[in-house]
């Protein structure tokens, strides 16, 4: 599929394409040019021509839709016009909203070259894409953001967060929970399959989790490196088998090197489908000799680990990162598929500057199951909130009362905020360890 249209000036053309079996995998093909243009935006080097077919295979498996904005009026010596000056990519994966894994619109690879920035190119691509995604029936758009200032203006709200942690694994480190199952290093040839199997179980049971793209298990397991799709021999993979012998968690990690003090192991990826598998993976990490510190950037904010340690001061939080940003495209479809706690009825008025999701909606929840209906004409809302606030509230990563205090949500009736807190509340925080 190729669509060409004008964006902001007659010299700029937007070309949108998907990757079929006949896509040219050579360095001269449009895919390689698109990929290298994306690399420019994220300050990466030019891709090795040998690697392009593997990236093509990965992007094809993800069924990515790639957008490039091409400038046909550049100086003669400039990169030729087949190298887009702006890139944008989308794909569809699942988001766990409790009652279901729903298909959502993922946005990625957003770049605009320095020579063309702040001329409205991102705005032009994103407003069109969000509208088209809504028209295709996708209820929610999601992304992970390079900077927290970019996407609020397009109606996204920060929805999940993680902690970067540093754990002292010297003698005082001890997991007090009763030991169970076995944790062991596995051979490379089984790594991708096991990583995918464990992630699938984790994803199905974790509110806020997003399905992973093709390359993820390869990078997590070391089959692909960070820079190139070739084996990264520094990455080790340990799998936890539960008492029944089922793989229930894995951790991949690399040693930071003897010149780094304290001696540090960095977790590349850690996925556990049960609480005990999680603690057993930490017991394993704590048993690595000659290591003083283990670092990991994807811990839950409500992490059980410090509560399971003999000395909780082994556990330090070094930072908080936003992960998933959510944008409502179809409020009844999005809210109607999520699971809730308890029962109650409330009318929400949603404000959306882009005009995609605004309106008044009745949310009626009975024993955790919602019926959501758009309301016609003038209705008295219990709560007015921005589309950003609704995106943040959607996965329960922040309470309505916090959003009210922050000014994104206004209650018009008594108890409305308390009811939202109760309905949208979760036993555990939403948790997403998929970046894209
Ligand atoms: C999901 C992802 O892929 S996250 C990755 C995002 N990309 C990057 O960080 C790569 C480096 N940055 C870039 O390539 C570009 O600066 C982009 C893509 C962030 C912005 O592209 P531009 O075409 O310059 O944005 P555009 O001109 O459409 O700006 C739209 C609005 O966003 C604002 N804006 C754009 N980028 C930023 C930013 N980084 N911080 C704050 N505001 C921003 C503009 O000021 C403008 O505001 P206005 O419409 O209210 O006047």
UniProtKB/TrEMBL annotation:
Residues in coiled coil: none
Pfam families: Acetyltransf_17 (PF17668), Acetyltransf_9 (PF13527), SCP2_2 (PF13530)
Xref: PROSITE patterns: GNAT
InterPro entries in the cross-refs: Acetyltransf_17 (IPR041380), Acetyltransferase_Eis (IPR051554), Acyl_CoA_acyltransferase (IPR016181), Eis_dom (IPR025559), GNAT_dom (IPR000182), NAcTrfase_Eis (IPR022902), SCP2_sterol-bd_dom_sf (IPR036527)
Gene3D superfamilies xrefs: 3.40.630.30, SCP2 sterol-binding domain (3.30.1050.10)
GO molecular function: aminoglycoside N-acetyltransferase activity
Top-level taxon of origin: Bacteria
N-acetyltransferase domain segment(s): 42-176
Keyword tags: Acyltransferase, Transferase
Binding site for acetyl-CoA: 110-112, 118-123, 146-147
Any one Gene Ontology BP term: aminoglycoside antibiotic catabolic process
Active site per database record: 151 (proton donor), 436 (proton acceptor)
Family in the record: Belongs to the acetyltransferase Eis family.
Cross-referenced HAMAP family: Eis (MF_01812)
UniProt subunit comment: Homohexamer; trimer of dimers.
Protein name: GNAT family N-acetyltransferase
Species name: Arthrobacter cheniae
């Amino acid at each position: 599929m190729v669509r060409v249209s004008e964006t902001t000036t007659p010299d700029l053309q937007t070309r949108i394409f998907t990757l079929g079996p006949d896509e040219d995998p050579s360095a001269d093909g449009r895919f390689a040019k698109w990929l290298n243009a994306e690399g420019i935006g994220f300050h990466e080097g030019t891709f090795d021509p040998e690697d392009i077919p593997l990236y093509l295979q990965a992007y094809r498996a993800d069924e990515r839709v790639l957008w490039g904005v091409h400038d046909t009026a550049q100086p003669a010596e400039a990169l030729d016009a087949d190298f887009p000056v702006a890139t944008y990519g989308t794909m569809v994966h699942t988001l766990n909203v409790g009652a279901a894994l729903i298909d959502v619109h993922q946005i990625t690879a957003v770049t605009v070259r320095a020579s063309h920035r702040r001329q409205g190119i991102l705005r032009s691509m994103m407003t069109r894409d969000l509208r088209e995604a809504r028209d295709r029936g996708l209820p929610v758009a999601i992304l992970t953001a390079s900077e927290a200032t970019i996407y609020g203006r397009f109606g996204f709200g920060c929805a999940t967060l993680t902690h970067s942690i540093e754990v002292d694994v010297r003698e005082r480190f001890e997991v007090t929970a009763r030991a169970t199952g076995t944790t062991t290093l596995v051979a490379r040839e089984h790594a991708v399959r096991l990583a995918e199997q464990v992630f699938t179980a984790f994803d199905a049971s974790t509110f806020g989790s997003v399905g992973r793209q093709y390359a993820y298990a390869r990078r997590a397991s070391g089959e692909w490196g960070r820079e190139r799709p070739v084996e990264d021999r520094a990455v080790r993979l340990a799998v936890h088998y539960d008492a029944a012998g089922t793989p229930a968690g894995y951790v991949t990690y690399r040693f930071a090197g003897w010149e780094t003090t304290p001696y540090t192991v960095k977790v590349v990826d850690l996925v556990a489908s049960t609480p005990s598998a999680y603690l057993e993976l930490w017991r394993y990490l704590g048993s690595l000799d000659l290591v003083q510190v283990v670092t990991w950037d994807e811990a839950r904010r409500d992490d059980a680990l410090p509560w399971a340690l003999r000395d909780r001061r082994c556990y330090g939080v070094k930072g908080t990162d936003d992960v998933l940003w959510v944008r409502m495209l179809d409020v009844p479809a999005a809210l109607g598929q999520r699971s809730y706690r308890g029962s109650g009825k409330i009318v929400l008025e949603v404000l959306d500057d882009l005009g995609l999701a605004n309106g008044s909606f009745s949310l009626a929840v009975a024993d955790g199951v919602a019926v959501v209906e758009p309301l016609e004409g003038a209705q008295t809302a219990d709560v007015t909130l921005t589309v950003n606030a609704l995106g943040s509230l959607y996965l329960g990563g922040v309470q309505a009362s916090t959003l009210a205090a922050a000014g994104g949500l206004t209650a018009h009736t008594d108890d409305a905020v308390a009811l939202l807190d109760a309905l949208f509340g979760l036993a555990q925080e939403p948790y997403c360890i998929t970046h894209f």
